[in-house]
Design a protein that fits this description.
It holds the Pfam family Ank_2. This is Ankyrin repeat domain 37. Keywords: ANK repeat, Repeat. InterPro entries: Ank_Repeat/CDKN_Inhibitor, Ankyrin_rpt, Ankyrin_rpt-contain_sf. The protein is mostly helical. It has two domains: about 120 residues, Ankyrin repeat-containing domain (Serine Threonine Protein Phosphatase 5, Tetratricopeptide repeat, Alpha Horseshoe); about 40 residues, no CATH class. The chain is about 55% helix and about 0% strand. Strands 1-2 form a two-stranded antiparallel sheet. A hairpin with a 5-residue loop joins β1 and β2. α3 packs parallel to α5 and α6 packs antiparallel against α7.
Length: about 170
């Protein structure tokens, strides 16, 4: 596979077609797939084509970076949106322990970082809504599903009312 600079122009992608590179081609020395290269170049159209042909959007390269990390590093909101819509793992960490949102922030792409943080928050809220069990948030604090909290409050409230009634009878 050919290694392309992240700031390459879209004409360079024709080399991938000429070389006959597969959608999930065996990793080169850097472990980058065509989807990595498209995301790294901010080439949303090429990335969309890769995703539609079955590219693994969570494939990690030698740095532990998936296409979502590459798109975040170059500030391509369009590529990030495609990857998120394709169910890319937003919380996937690279070898340095950084998520795509961390990289977007580190590279100065605040809008991309906010977008990813909003998507992460939305996904977390959906997970909480699907179960009544407590879950840890990013800081390790225990949070409960609001429905479970309401149910618990109703149960404890009725128990305390029963106690009050029995106290009234005794007194």
């Amino acid at each position: 596979m050919l290694m392309l600079d992240c700031n390459s122009e879209s004409g360079s992608f024709s080399n991938l077609f000429e070389a006959g590179t597969g959608v999930n081609a065996p990793a080169d020395a850097f472990g980058q797939s065509p989807a990595h290269l498209a995301a790294c170049g901010g080439e949303a159209f090429f990335l969309l084509w890769q995703l539609q042909t079955g590219a693994n959007m969570n494939q990690q390269d030698c740095l532990g970076e998936a296409p979502i990390h590459k798109a975040a590093k170059v500030g391509s909101l369009e590529c990030l949106a495609l990857l998120v819509a394709g169910d890319a793992k937003i919380d996937l960490c690279n070898n340095s322990g950084q998520t795509a949102a961390d990289l977007a922030l580190a590279y100065g792409f605040l809008e991309c970082a906010k977008f990813l943080a909003t998507i992460q928050h939305t996904q977390t809220m959906k997970l909480r809504g699907q179960s009544g069990y407590t879950q840890s948030d990013k800081c390790g604090l225990q949070r409960e599903n609001p429905a479970a909290q309401k149910q618990e409050h109703e149960i404890s409230g009725s128990a305390s009312r029963k106690r009050r009634r029995s106290d009234d009878v005794i007194a």
